[in-house]
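Let's practice the habit of predicting before peeking. Look at the sequence and jot down your guess about where helices and strands might fall. Then scroll down.
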Amino acid sequence: MALSLYAATVPSYLQILGSVAGLLEKAQAFCAERSLAPAQLIEARLAPDMLPFAYQVRSTVTHSIGAIEGLRRGTFSPDRSAHPGSFAELQTLVRGAEAALAALEPTELEGYGEREMLFVAGERRLVFTGENFLLSFSQPNFYFHATTTYDILRWKGVAIGKRDFTGRLRIKA
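Done guessing? Here is the structure:
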């Protein structure tokens, strides 16, 4: 059985976005328990030249449902807007992405597999097929930003572990 583009992406997006939502809850609780200003986590970075936690969370949305919306348009550009400044705003983004992904018809993605997809970032332009865009560009970026979200919280002392990252496994019932 061939693996569909939907099966190769959407269930994993949903799994990890659920984890990111859980990480946000733990981050917010951590701030409340320690009387920390939320900005101490929301603006945290692993290195001075990296973008902050809020950007990492938003990028999981950008590289999941945002990538699929890009496929619909035939073009994708990085989200350069200001990143959210609160846990509530971040949670709204993640939960909105989950809802949009859950509403997708699996057959829709199959129609985009061979479609030309243009990535534009400033003067940089890359042409992909829809399949290669999702699997070689957006999916690796999605996992990078989800992992960085996790790593920032671990580094700041939030009590999380591997299960908080992997989330709800899709086991045989």
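How did you do? The radius of gyration is 16 Å.
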